[in-house]
Amino acid sequence: DINGNKTVQESSSTIEGESSLSLIGPLHLPRPNRYIPRTLELCPDLPDEAKLGPRIEKEIDPPNLIVNQPGTGRLWHRLDDRYALPKSSLSILLRSATVENVKGEIDNTWAYNVDTAMQSQILTGVFSDALAQETYDASLAGLHWSLYKSSAGIVLNCSGYSDRLPDLAIQLLKDFFMVGEENKDNDKESFLQESHFTSTKDRAIRGYKSFFQSRRADTQAMYFRDLLMSSLGGGNEKSLVAAESITLESLKQQHKRILMDADKELECLFSGNVSEKDAKSFFENASDIVKKATEREVSKGGVTFDSARYVQPWIPGPFERQLNPGEDLELHFTSKNTEEENGAVLVTYQSHVPGYKGESLSSKESLKSTAAIRLICHMLKEPLFDELRTKQQLGYVVSSYYDINFATRSQDVVCLSDEESSAEYIPSTTPIDSIVINILSRKASPPEVTERVDEFLETFREKLAGGPLSEIKDHAASLSKQLLKPIRKLGSEADIHFAKIRRYGPEILGQGGNAENLPWNSVKTLAETIKSLERNDLLEAWDRVVRSKTRSRIVSCVYGSTFPLKKESANGFGVVSSLGGRATSIDSLGILFAKRKQLKPYGPNISVGKYGSLSGVFNSLLSNKRTLGVAAAAIVGIGVIGISLCRDSTERKSIKK
After folding, report:
1. Chain segment 187-226, per-residue pLDDT in tens
2. Does 44 score more than 70 pLDDT?
3. Nearest C-alpha neighbor of 430 from the set 412, 413, 406
4. 597 and 611 in contact (C-beta within 8 Å)?
5. Are 460 and 347 in contact (CB under 8 A)?
6. 584-586 and 328-334: which strand pairing?
7. Which residues are registered as beta bridge partners of 649?
8. Distance from C-alpha of 77 to C-alpha of 219, rounded to nearest angstrom
9. Of the given ranges (60-69, 343-352, 581-590), which has the lowest mean pLDDT?
10. For a Cys staple, 240 with which of 24, 124, 208, 326, CB 3.0–4.6 Å?
């Protein structure tokens, strides 16, 4: 132009010239996104009617078990025929005792260890932090993933467009397992780098330090209850100490321990727009990655963990304690949030009758008990809120709900045949039904709030006994309809299926069952039973769980600044409680941990394998006298039920169908 500046045309021609290449140096177009799907076509294995569009009302077919290789793992597959979407969901559980446990030096049994569990938690966090940028392209292409620690091992979830989903999952598995020489060959660093470790550890420490300061009183009430009932760790303080003590080197050693575990197995569910052939191909690749990682560590002189050397094998799954029949427990703690004015009361009634699992796994008593408790909770919610929140204006938060938790322990299965008899450990998972009431209030002290709750519950019992039967039937119909409401998302469907696989797969398959025996459609049976309940069924369940002398109740009270805790109201075990009546009152962590040692793990009535009851075993023994001596010795020597305290189940399960 007239000022001597280059025009756009001149600038463009200069940039295109060879002499200017050195000026643009590292500038380049973005690399192609390898995760963008190449096709959005539906799987050719689908029937034509499934390709026409969504069929949400269609009944869900259960996954098929297409690979079952002891020592390697299992692959479950379901080709979606309801959503007509080019998407899939992939869930992988790396089941390994080394994730949260250490081997005892004396008895060679696995035992939960807070430092080991924290190392695994930080390990998954470091991996997620390190891979966030690398997998950014995947998120842009509609693929999502997460990696986290559970009481059964490490879980990897991937979801999104099905065409490139296996590529993402395989790459994540390689990045987690192929640390060291394998990554060097690919010119790639290990995810265990100082920068990712420092940031992840810092986030964890800040989270533990600010846990109580940022939580409401009712959240703290739940924390103290769970610390007593389901945790194997030492609480927030112990977790903080464990997090602060972790070093990058200790993290590398924990990662190595996981790799060296020769007993680890993959539990995999691949559902959605994926063929059986492609699912098998993925599982073979995934299994090969895990196998090679273990072999590589062994070749370096590592020592693998062999389950045959353990007196009692590790049983994966959640953990829960059982309250003593006829004992009320009271927890009294001051809120650690200095700005909290509200107090909180969390009342939990635990049922002694095991919850319903499925037709082939539970008794009729369990089915009717679970159905009745769920219907009671459905009926309780509205009148409780109306009376205590609307009329009495007792609290800022007033709610009641049905709660379900799970407890896994080992069950000795006695196997009898003409040739031999033996005993082996099989995991058994038990659902635990509870009625929970939660109130956050600064209008009254926690003891007074509890008294008002008790008063309301008495009037509610009168309503159950004398109210119109039509009201019960209306609630039953409403709850049944709610339970049978069609699932509308592939991810939700996959979560429900994978939860059943994790909880009941080892138990059923370990006893010689097959995939069809899993309680895939237990919600349908439950809904039908709820509709058939009569008034007497509800009264029996109510009196057993809430009212009788053998009930089990825990009241967790947290005190805010408006009504501070008076120490003379809670003086330890067995004193007259601050809530009136005689109960076990706990007001310190020391007393809480002492009481925790006294509580037994939750478990159902004794049952042994496919025979269903101990008497059934002896009947079978008597009919086969030749094996009586050996099998009876197995029962006496090993014990019918072996308790496994190898898990921390601070994760309380959400209520799902």
Report:
1. 567 899 999 999 999 999 999 999 998 899 999 999 999 9
2. yes
3. 406
4. no
5. no
6. parallel
7. none
8. 38
9. 581-590
10. 208
Other Cβ atoms closer than 10 A to 84: 15
User: Does 646 have pLDDT greater than 80?
Assistant: no
* Residue 367, burial from CB neighbour count under 10 angstroms (0-12, 13-18, 19+): buried
Tokens of 31: 């690399």
- The CA distance from 423 to 426, in Å, is 10
Longest dimension (CA), the chain: 113
Compute the distance between CA of residue 347 and CA of residue 435 in angstroms, rounded to an integer.
8
Parallel, antiparallel, or unpaired for β 143-150 and 328-334? unpaired
Residue partners of 618: CB distance under 8 A and separation at least 6: none
What DSSP state is assigned to residue 254?
Answer: H
pLDDT band per the 50, 70, 90 thresholds, residue 385: very high
What does the alpha-carbon distance between residue 345 and residue 180 come to, in Å, rounded to a whole number? 52
Q: Which long-range contacts (CB under 8 A, 24 or more apart) does 533-537 make?
A: 533/368, 533/371, 533/372, 533/375, 533/472, 533/476, 535/464, 535/465, 535/469, 535/472, 537/368, 537/371, 537/372
Determine the average pLDDT of the residues in 71-82. Answer: 95
Given a contact cutoff of 8 angstroms between Cβ atoms, the answer to whether 293 and 261 are in contact is no
618-638 per-position pLDDT tens digit = 233 233 333 333 233 232 222
- Joined together, the tokens standing for residue 209 give 């330090």
- Single out the residue of 384, 374, 392, 356 nearest to residue 480, CA to CA: 374
Distance CA 294, CA 308 (A): 18
For residue 277, give the H/E element and its range.
helix 276-299
- With cut-offs at 50, 70 and 90, classify the pLDDT of residue 180: low
* Angle at which helices 535-542 and 469-483 cross, to 10°: 80
Both tokens assigned to 1: 């132009």
When mean pLDDT is compared across 120-129, 213-222, 513-522, 623-632, the lowest value belongs to 623-632
To which residue do tokens 């533990």 refer?
A: 208
